[in-house]
Amino acid sequence: MQLAYRAPNGPTVDRMIDHVYEDLACAQPTSVSADMLRDSLRASFVGVQMLVGATRDQFSYILNAGFTPRPRVQDQIVTLSKNAARGSAWSIELPACGHSSQSIDLYQLLRGNPREANLRDYFAELGIRHMMLATCYRDEDWRYLFFATRAPGQEPFSKDESATLAHVVPHFRTAFRARTRFLTANAMNRCLSMGLDQLGVGVAIVDRDGEVIEMSMVAERILARKDGLLHNRRLRAAWAGDDRRLQDMIQKLGGADGHNRPRAISLWRPSGRPRLEILIDSLRAGGRPSGAGAVVYMRDRDAASSLAPHALQGLFGLTEAEAHVCVRLAEGLTPHMICETTGISYNTVRAHLRSVFAKCEVESQAELMRLIINSPACIALQPGAVAATAAYRKARPGRASIHSRA
Amino acid sequence: MNGRGPTASDRFISDEMIDSIYDGLVAIRPAPGTLETIRAALRADAVVLHFAVAIGATASLVETVGQEDLTRQGNAGDCSQLVAAGEGWQICCLRAPEETPFGEEEDRNFRELAAHVRRAMRVRNGLLEDGAAVHALSGVIDQLGIGAMIVRSNGRMMHADARAEAILKERDGLHLIGDRLSAASAQEGRSLEALLRAVSDDERPSAAITITRPSGRPALGLTINRPPMADDLSTIGLVVSIRDPGKGLVQSADTLRDLYGLTGTEAQLTIDLVNGKSVQETEERRGISHNTMRAHLRSIYAKLGVGRLSELIHVVSSGTSPLAPGRDRAVSPPNA
User: Fold this and answer.
1) Among A26, A299, A364, B217, which residue carries the largest CB count within 10 Å?
2) Which of A171, A261, A278 sits opposite B254 (nearest CB)?
3) Distance between CA atoms of A87 and B68, rounded to whole angstroms?
4) CB contact under 8 A, B150 and A399
5) Which domains are assigned to chain B?
């Protein structure tokens, strides 16, 4: 059932507003919409300046429609508007929030200015004579100043065009806000999924019939081993006894009466490696089981440790060698095993450990383990992790603009 | 080109409402506050939003505000309804049978609102496209006691998740001054600033720092990472992960029983040991003799196939049991 959207404002303006929102996740969010705005206003260019606080922290953002970014033009226009505040001789009166000004003739504005001829030439060269401004506020101290300009040979902007600008401007503002949110949420999600990948926790979401909807990278990796847990549309355990319990849990927690507590199961693996631990919970919305499916968490102990030694160094002031001993310890090796695998002598390992104990203020290996496991070191990126993420990105193309999929 | 720009007064949808739609719905879990705004604006008795778990998924989650009983099966049929839907979402406004049904004007206003909902949900699809199972992740990360913040290189906080916000609110070691992240100790504050700048300037891939707490509780650990972004998006800030070592403990005895076949007592003892109690402290706390404790430990070690306490801690904490919430479900809602 697709919604028929009735345009309150004519199809062109409406399509433009669609683009304002739909392109906000693109690298150049305003490239299409600003072009459309420029065309519909028959302007030589349109732009926006963001003013933060008492204009001290200002930065500009050029919509860049038919115009190579030229910071000086921006500066000039802002100077004009700043002078408005100071009541200077050549000032532009800024329109009230949410409105736009009538067409302003720069030449007229410059009349009587001691540098009139110079400034006239300067603006003429840039192709600016007529100008329209619109302002709106984002928060108390964020102000957007939009402008559209026309060249000396052209007509001034009409009243209708001024109204169109005033109508579109708030949407740009909302889209900029949403873009900030989008980028933040995007970074947050990446960071969360990275965190779980780092911790070796795989996540699979199954619907109420047990079919897999989504899988995280680590879950894919665990399933690719086909060792204990298998996947063909549904999740299956390798051993029939395990599988009966697994299916039962998924059905109970994924269904409409998903008021059961989360259930755990460890799966036997044909390779003889330690059992694969699984935790199953209902898919929740707002803290309540939704009855729409279940979440299956899996953790492969061998793949779980990805402690970053440099993070341990930063957190506890350890030396590199000490940090490496800690990482091995957290992987479950005993000091003797550390000697064997790394080739350093037992006495050196013990000396490192003594020093680590002192620095971390712990008295036993068990205490040290707890400290490390509960530290954020396990979610610090390894130097190689960025490259791995890049590969992941390539493997899943199609994060293009949103409207391309529509 | 028709230029009839409506002024603010003749528009049904205020700027605030548009903001609320894009702020609230462009999230993994759409905010109930936005639905409440829509409900109030249309004077509806209930608003129901179905939203997809993932792109192309048949499963959807539901968020409801207002009178929930109206939305139950069988009841909705008698209500006056306004419905709009799109790719992966459906919104439905309901008015109770005894009220005046929705009129033409409300229908028009609803269509206008729905156009914004449609755009917001399409932006949300962009969000979902990225992360596998993202909304399930945030709860588990929270369970592990890990909070995340997005911070600019100058220390300006852009965003904090529920766990990070809770830690900051305690004002114990780390807090916000205005919107800047700062540490209680001036020296640690300076180190934090320097590290933020170093990671931001690409001098190092990531950094970690310990922030001591005036109250004497175990120090907070922070790691700073530059998030890998999609090529076509500019970087918004650094990801600062924070971990409260007092949280994120193994809580669920049920899970330990499921996983390792422990008895109830054994599971309780294991929780104590893994969460930082010594053997002696555990004996005292549970009121059992040293010999009984030894017998329990032998049994626990045998069932888990380990030989030492540190191995026990490793096995339990690198499994799935830390991901399970305790019985009381004292978990903040994910992505609040």
Assistant:
1) A299
2) A261
3) 57
4) no
5) 13-128 (3.30.450), 134-243 (3.30.450.20), 253-323 (1.10.10.10)
